[in-house]
Inverse folding.
């Protein structure tokens, strides 16, 4: 398991690799970000960004989403996976925003997770990106990188991964660490064909060293 010092070093190295790591979901305000993150579940940011320009032009407020038949909203997002359930959740959460928060996106994680289709990861992204609250949102990239590097154990669930990262990293770097790990996992430490041979963290990576040893054995 990587120590706190080694974990901080790893995040610093990722920052050197990806100095401009940030949320890649295109949005202009907290509400658009919330919708985009809900749409991104089990879907790439790239695909979401293809859909949202027209979507955000058509629907600009929670009331706009509520005041159309769900079938129409489904058509607007049908190129995105799980579009039927996402359309229903977007209408439900929009109604909740109107009823409970005056049409505004709440700023706390506890309030956000009470909205339809919003889990811990989505809430952390919104609080961090939209409101500047330190948070670590554990998506598939963050989880994979954490386990490959040995920051966490392979058997740890998503919540444990988040809690471990929060313990090993200073609070002031949580949000930056989240984005750096996403970029590192998305563009370098990929699920398939990770770039182990050119990785600056190979010496610290138990999984990478194992993969390189297997390559040498097969050569």
């Amino acid at each position: 398991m990587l120590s706190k010092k080694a974990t901080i070093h790893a995040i610093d190295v990722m920052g050197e690799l990806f100095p401009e790591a940030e949320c890649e979901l295109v949005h202009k305000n907290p509400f658009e970000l919330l919708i985009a993150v809900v749409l991104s579940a089990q879907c790439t940011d790239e695909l979401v960004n293809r859909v949202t320009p027209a979507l955000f032009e058509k629907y600009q407020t929670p009331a706009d989403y509520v005041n159309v038949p769900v079938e129409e909203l489904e058509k607007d997002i049908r190129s995105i996976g799980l579009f039927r359930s996402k359309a229903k959740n977007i209408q439900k959460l929009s109604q909740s925003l109107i009823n409970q928060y005056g049409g505004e996106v709440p700023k706390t994680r506890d309030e956000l997770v009470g909205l339809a289709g919003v889990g811990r990861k989505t809430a952390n992204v919104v609080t961090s990106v939209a409101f500047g609250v330190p948070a670590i949102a554990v998506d598939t990239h963050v989880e994979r990188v954490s386990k490959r590097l040995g920051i966490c154990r392979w058997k740890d669930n998503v919540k444990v991964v988040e809690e471990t990262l929060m313990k090993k990293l200073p609070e002031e770097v949580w949000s930056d660490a989240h984005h750096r790990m996403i970029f590192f996992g998305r563009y370098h430490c990929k699920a398939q064909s990770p770039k182990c041979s050119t990785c600056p963290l190979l010496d610290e990576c138990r999984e990478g060293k194992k993969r390189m040893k297997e390559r040498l054995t097969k050569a």
Q: What stands out?
A: The domain at 1-193 is CATH 1.10.340.30 (Endonuclease III; domain 1). The chain has one domain: 1-193.
